[in-house]
Amino acid sequence: MKKKILVVEDEPHISKLVKFILEKNGFEVMQAFVGQEGIEMAKREKPGLIVLDVMMPNMDGFEVAKILTAAKETKDIPIIMLSSAAQFKDKMKGIDSGAIDYITKPFDKDELVAKVKEYIQ
What we know:
The chain has about 120 residues and is α/β, with parallel strands linked by helices.
């Protein structure tokens, strides 16, 4: 059985690229394009890992991560932040929000796959 990954990314071309890379490596990938949709999908589908963009409309990835890590049904799902915000303070904010790792855009596909394989449940 394939491990499920939820990608929450508002930019369709990046979401499509991440989905393609992960599916090529044997994962089942679900997509959400805004934070609230990602939260609802995570609670319903119980993915083994979430790849979460930081800069999204309405609710940023930091807020989404805080909500997911506070909810009993999603608190144990590992979150990898994926963002163009590459400063140390951004990375620390991501970790403080509940993410287990932080990858900066543009990302290396091999790094993404390696981190997903390391953390997926």
